[in-house]
Amino acid sequence: MKVFDLNETNIFERDLNKFLVHDSAYFRIINFNIKAGEVFPVHSHPVEGELSILVLEGEGEFLGGEEAATPAKAGDIFICRIDEPHGMRAKTNMRILVTIAPPL
Amino acid sequence: MKVFDLNETNIFERDLNKFLVHDSAYFRIINFNIKAGEVFPVHSHPVEGELSILVLEGEGEFLGGEEAATPAKAGDIFICRIDEPHGMRAKTNMRILVTIAPPL
After folding, report:
1. Does a cis peptide bond (omega within 30 degrees of 0) precede residue B102?
2. How many whole angstroms separate alpha carbon B37 and alpha carbon A103?
3. Is residue A5 one of the residues assigned to a domain?
4. Residue A60 domain flag
5. Which residues of B touch A77 (CB under 8 A)?
6. B1·A79 Cβ contact <8 A
7. What pTM was estimated for this model as a whole?
8. Could you tell me which of B15, B45, B71, B72 has the fewest CB atoms within 10 Å of its CB?
9. CB–CB of A87/A38 below 8 Å?
10. Which of A1, A54, A97 sits opposite B80 (nearest CB)?
11. CA-based R_g, chain A, Å
């Protein structure tokens, strides 16, 4: 068993701050902190699998393909395939937790 | 893409309240709300894989094998193998998000 404390990564030094929580054969867990006004660019990977994006704090928009945007707030969990376009635009400072299974 | 709003499952009707967030070939995501003073009993399954337990709200103790107990508070992520003993004791009302990969 291991523990990771997200209270220790409440850091917004750069526009996009990345903290690897865990990486294994089963899943990769990453905390991203996105500064207000910044965008985690839409991307996708041509592999099998899914990812979840939990909004820990703040609000913004989940970005999909073809300029689709869905409001995102603390407590929302977005789930999509790894090969589907996904990104995030931060309206306020925003913290998200991404879980990728299986990892790329 | 699908969205699940954890604000809609802030419910403590029973001692242990379970809300399935997502289930697929890649991972299962479940929100458990545990009433103050209650225990999510220690258990394990003899299969490959790992699980993460994110404490969304509240505080208590992560329970492992042989009566091991580790303090747990909002923002902590516990990661263990599915075949390792794991459970949770709630000191206050506690909300956790469990991700199991691959699902049992």
Report:
1. yes
2. 36
3. no
4. yes
5. 3-6, 21-22, 29, 97
6. yes
7. 0.97
8. B71
9. no
10. A1
11. 13
Task: Say if CB A4 and CB A21 are below 8 A apart.
Answer: yes
Is B36 exposed, middle or buried, given 0-12, 13-18 or 19+ CB atoms closer than 10 A? middle
What would the pLDDT profile of A20-44 be if each residue is shown by its tens digit?
Answer: 999 999 999 999 999 999 999 999 9
Supply the mean pLDDT for chain A: 97
pLDDT digits (tens, 9 = 90+) for A82-94: 999 999 999 999 9
Tally of domains within chain B? 1
Asked if residue B80 is part of any domain, the answer here is yes
CATH number of residue A66's parent domain: 2.60.120.10
Q: Which amino acid is at B18?
A: K
Q: Is A24 on the interface with B (CB under 8 A)?
A: yes
ipTM for the whole complex: 0.96
A4 vs B: CB within 8 A: yes
Q: Is A41 inside a domain boundary?
A: yes
Nearest CA to CA, how far is B37 from chain A (Å)? 22
Measured from the Cβ of residue A91, the count of other Cβ atoms closer than 10 Å reads: 15
Report how far residue B19's alpha carbon sits from residue B75's, in angstroms, rounded to the nearest whole number. 20
Question: Residue A104's pLDDT is what?
Answer: 83
Range of the domain at A76: 14-101
